[in-house]
Amino acid sequence: MQKRLLGGVLLCAAATLPATTHASSHREAPFITENPKVDATDFYLFASYEPGRAGFVTLIANYQPLQAAYGGPNYFTMDPDAIYEIHVDNNGDANEDLTFQFDFDSALAATGNGLALMVGPNGSQRSVAVPLANIGAITAGATFDADQNVQETYTVKVIRGDRRTGTAQDVTAAAGGGTTFMKPVDNIGTKTFPNYAQYANAHVYNITIPGCTPPASTTARMFVGQRSEAFAVNLGQIFDLVNMSGSGGTANPLGAQDQGFNTVAGTNVTSIAIEVPSSCLGENGADTIIGGWTTASVRQARVINPTATYENPAREGGPWVQVSRLGMPLVNEVVIGLKDKDRFNSSEPSGDGQFADYVTHPTLPELMEILYGAATLPAPNNFPRTDLIAAFLTGVPGVNNTGTTLSEQLRLNFGIPATAAAGQNTFGAALCFDRSAAGGVLDLQNAGCDPAGYPNGRRPADDITDVTLRVAEGYLAPTADAAAGGAAIVDGAFIGNASSAAFLAGFPYLNTPRPGSP
Relative to the CA of 389, which of 27, 72, 103, 329 has its CA 20 to 30 Å away? Predict the structure, then answer.
């Protein structure tokens, strides 16, 4: 089973990575640029590798891209008029069987009036509302701090069946059974937060998920809040017609993996993280192969309130309409044609047959050949890419196949044991293959071979950009079909210090966000 998984994992990478321009999913479609609060940036799905957490799967959905740590005074609250969802397909029909639905609320302190200061001399004092998110240091974790002006909370439902008509139940706190959870304030700076990591950790909740039984002596966990951006990409040069030559201060696409060009390294994101018993995810508690994706939806109708208030800047109603979708990274950004990007964001996996041409006849490898020349970077020439449509839209038979219905999802076989943090390789399963005339040849003895890595799910330390670059040019294709398939292409951006040691050793795995002031 392990050998079949390895082969399928890399085929899946080839399927979802038919191009060489990257960002994971930041501002990837025209309409979503107008709605940054519901813009999904990354989706992670992996068997939990924190010691003592075998039997759990971690799902992390990141939203609100490219957050400047100094982004005050309002920072990056979630949209209270939207719903954020993580979906799991566990029977291969390309429809959600399990949905975790997050619904946020934002309120001002003092029963909605906001914090105020008494201003003026005695006899003519006025109570005046303050313009800031806080008026003093925030140290409380389990309760809202007295100096905290903006208070965010959220509720979570687990829905079985259709996301709108299925059976919905509340996720509750393991201690006390409460259904409302606090979201920590963003990392305003070191004066506001003497110890932000400690403050944020107080918002990691032990939870009870109805219908899910965790391994003995454990509970599921959940965290929602700001985190440091985990993705690495040379964003500016990539989108400037892949302006990488190794000269004039640009990255060398055939140089060292780390050239200091991670242009998103100084930013934060907002993470929705939930750790779920794996027995709850597989169909009937037995199957170990699932597909997952995250979405955000808003109400169909919005009328701007001409006398806006904090609670009601607009009046919204009508059915929920999906405006953001993300499973495998890079798909909508560099695979789907510009005219269909908004359509993809509003679509569901069961309708992905309409996008098949983008996989069987990908355009960006052809653009790369135009930009670099056929002598330097020839595009693979095996058309139609039937190998890619099998892996990209159906999964690999016997490995991580989730059915015959064409559907784009991030697929995980959590039956493959997690690799401990110290043993992870940023190239994931890619290093389990040798380049040969017949294409990628499996060799489990290869140095760095890590079968639990991307794209068998995705972990924070997996360097999806460099894996993409190599597979896109035909690393797994026969030499006759992909002359550039063996090139060790990089984008010059690196994830942290090249391993899982760059991240937290346990849940929620992503690092403490960067502060707005030193």
Answer: 27
